[in-house]
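Deviations from the work plan: none for this task. Representative record:
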Amino acid sequence: MKLVDKNTIDGMEQRFRAQFINGLSGYKSANLIGTQSQSGVPNLAIFSSVFHLGADPALMGMISRPDTVTRDTLSNIKELGCYTINHVNEDIIEAAHQSSARYEPECSEFEAVGLTPIYQNGHLAPYVKESFCQIGLKLREFRPLEINKTVMVIGEIVDVSLPEIAIRQDGSIDYSKLNTIALSGLDEYHKAASIKRLSYAKVGKPLVEL
Amino acid sequence: MKLVDKNTIDGMEQRFRAQFINGLSGYKSANLIGTQSQSGVPNLAIFSSVFHLGADPALMGMISRPDTVTRDTLSNIKELGCYTINHVNEDIIEAAHQSSARYEPECSEFEAVGLTPIYQNGHLAPYVKESFCQIGLKLREFRPLEINKTVMVIGEIVDVSLPEIAIRQDGSIDYSKLNTIALSGLDEYHKAASIKRLSYAKVGKPLVEL
């Protein structure tokens, strides 16, 4: 094991440091955030920072850098009050990754990268047709984090579209039916295979495979 | 595609709902949080909510339920001001999962589940010897989220121990050398295999595999 201490981290070249530190949290989710501007331009951007926040109410969080001139996800969410989260699957990795390029506000990333916006369930923000898990959310909190000028967005889930076969009897989701991929670091995409499910852990009781 | 609307979500039985909503964010990281009580008892707990927050300063976030009588991670972090984050790998899935049982405060989960606490680099909190990515952090923020009574903990990375062979020339981390696994939902463990790395996305420029 090699020790990378604080001095070494502090002295890292900026891009090396970004690659290294981004890789430390473990596997990350890969999601496309669908929004729409006030003038009606659909917007799409890949995020690796979406996380589960709570089941009741059903909340999801995500972290974003502050919006710059050409990145419109945050301002669209604020203006429209809603957005969508769509799992990236193996067939749309390149398109999803390309959505992180700095397109102008009047350009739809859907069109630029070759994905299809769909409007459904009375939701104002576009979903990604090619995704097998499409989640509609309404904005609940927009919370700037002073510590490094990022923003935490908290949304409440209002609907989910996914293949019925992916919902198991106990409510858990069978990812093998969604073809969902995982991210590590800034740019590495992974296919995952289930090893096992384990029973709820109790003191003094052996775990059982579900 | 099956539509699960807000009424359906609201009407779900509690455990079904927990399984379903927990599964929506995509793949999650699996990390063991190492802490120590003021009376010197090492504590260990698995978290699926650790996320990357920023590279400069090097920050990681995690979400926790509020501490109850028998869950000591949060109070230990607050008291000691530091903690460790350790990747779960394929060889320690059962032990990591078992750490979520409600052991008494005077019981070391390390001992109970069969993992080894190590103290290194002058850090007061214990690392997990069996993990191939051991990260030491000092507490920066402890932020209760009123929306659902969870707590966001933000820590600054002070050291990292990992196999030297896992650090690529550009700083990115080769997860295949760490045997790190991914989680989905509440209880499903996955092995991941790299599909590809893609170049930094630019408007009008084709992506290249790295």
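Chain A touches chain B through 112 residues (CB under 8 Å).
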